[in-house]
What does this fold into?
Amino acid sequence: MKTSGKNKFDLDTPCLVLDLDLLETNLRKMQDAVNRAGKNLRPHAKTHKCSPLAQKQREAGAIGICAAKVSEAEALVKAGLGGILVTGPVPTPGKIKRLVEILAVDPSLMVVVDHREGVNLLDAALSERGLSMDVLLDVDVGLHRTGVKPAEALELADYILSRERLRLRGIQAYAGQVQHIRSYDDRKTASHQSLQEAVPLFRELEKKAETCTIFSSSGTGTFDIDLAVPEVTELQVGSYACMDAEYLDIGSAENDRQFTSFGPALRLLTTVVSTNQKGFVTVDAGLKSLYRDGGTPKIIGSESGMTYTWFGDEYGMVICPDPVGLPPIGTVLELVTSHCDPTINLFNQFYLIRGNDVVGVWPIDLRGCSQ
Amino acid sequence: MKTSGKNKFDLDTPCLVLDLDLLETNLRKMQDAVNRAGKNLRPHAKTHKCSPLAQKQREAGAIGICAAKVSEAEALVKAGLGGILVTGPVPTPGKIKRLVEILAVDPSLMVVVDHREGVNLLDAALSERGLSMDVLLDVDVGLHRTGVKPAEALELADYILSRERLRLRGIQAYAGQVQHIRSYDDRKTASHQSLQEAVPLFRELEKKAETCTIFSSSGTGTFDIDLAVPEVTELQVGSYACMDAEYLDIGSAENDRQFTSFGPALRLLTTVVSTNQKGFVTVDAGLKSLYRDGGTPKIIGSESGMTYTWFGDEYGMVICPDPVGLPPIGTVLELVTSHCDPTINLFNQFYLIRGNDVVGVWPIDLRGCSQ
It folds into this structure.
């Protein structure tokens, strides 16, 4: 379908659009902040699931790209991207085989480990293939989802160092549990406390092995907070590129009621399809195009105070306190999505816009890469 | 990837499997019930998003297939399926153009209408193309999402009948709001009350126009209840084929604590990937592979009382009251999904199983068809 030259409001809906001006500003602001702190940026592709966007992040200065899953790493390497870090442990033979196949194509691939069993399987698979691999020790700093506890981390680090095929490059310490704390000051305190749990370990590893130079950490909610931690060497932030209602609702350094560091580059377009009720209309975006997680989607430019609420798999309800302000059939509304990551994962493409003009399309080529 | 001959527990996870024995039983039970009542079945593809599964439903006796969106209808017709009913109103020029293009390929296509504006646009587009089309009047029987109110329905019906290019074939009355009422008796009462709102209208339309022969209605939760309504001519049930935890939790005619009419043919496989905590382990299925909606996923065959809970975009937490019962790294667990429709929409394929053997793959070719 020819889309370039179209007005965004003429696109069939529901669809996702990316405002390139806002996106480029977001990428630049993050890269500048990281550069100023003398650190590195390895942004997370789990958010945008889009290798052309990852390529933009690389061009802006990122040293690599993070992937949550092996299948995401496969797609990124296939698209020619390097410096991939798989941020979840991969402790099963089938997946490790896939991982080692990617490594054979791109030796810069890294993965985290958090258990002896995963270490043994990986070491054996690498040995069989005659390869060696960079790994980070995943340290649990309070999220409790993956990672070894700090008290047990040194023992596992020693074990990794004893394996022939693994090069321990440092640690990953992701404090996911603090990213959406509303108050900036509380978030700052919580993030510092979390990361401090990993600092003595990292200092110890630096002494133990000269290969240990990476402390990968952070998320969009704490990017500036974590840049102030001397030991942190790189950020693995994701949402800052696209942004969502969930992140825009937390406080930031400049404004304790709003997260003003990055702008809402990602929007969902939805059309009014039924208007037979009083007080609300029905739009064509529901659970299957707007993931119900992490706060309420916000309608952009609604002067009459319209709000979106879920109304089943295929539909949404748009409520207006003033019935006169209800939009007629066919009206296209523009929303900031609830939680951007799982919403993007519902679509095959982003329409790229400058102002109201559609200027291109990017495939969401990592969509569905959940393995 | 060669999958046939594999054991399901050797599949990379997270992935969706369809138990063919249960699926075939579900399809046969529904078709038999509909046949016994002397009615028709036009099952909804919005649930399974899979044209090979729709083909199975046709082979079992269905007279056609329902689609929620124009893009779903496009994919179904492309796959060679006929008798497609689009169950949501399509009131915008771009989508109507797409609809008319499908009609040009398959004249059996039908769509619902609920507003004069949609009627006018459709009539004009058909006129331009020299085509005519079957439509159903979408009547709101309490869900308030789409559909004309019963009191205003006759006026809109007369208007449709006055249009040259539209053939009014009857009504759609979908009581989505009653489908998950837990008590079977309460659900029965509520469904009858809802459908009765449309019965006088349908009787009137039957008198007005001999083309008005269709009363399309129902969902999985009320299939047997609505088959007892004399005016209903066809069911547009969806979830019965795959089933989910949300439906299995409601009462049925035979058992007021469980929905025993259909079995859980759909399952999600997920693997334990991190085991460094007390009381729980982390598995590799989160929001992006298990939609957080409609109840808690259930772990099949868990004798030690394991329960799943969400743990972020990529992960789940499996809690076990007895820590000795916690599964080790690499264990594959089998879950009944929360709400099947939006979960299926996250994946590209179903692995087909008989017992534990993988016997094939079906593409989820309507996935992402939200337009």
The radius of gyration of chain B is 22 Å. Chain B has a mean pLDDT of 97. Residues 136 and 228 of chain B are 21 Å apart (CA to CA).
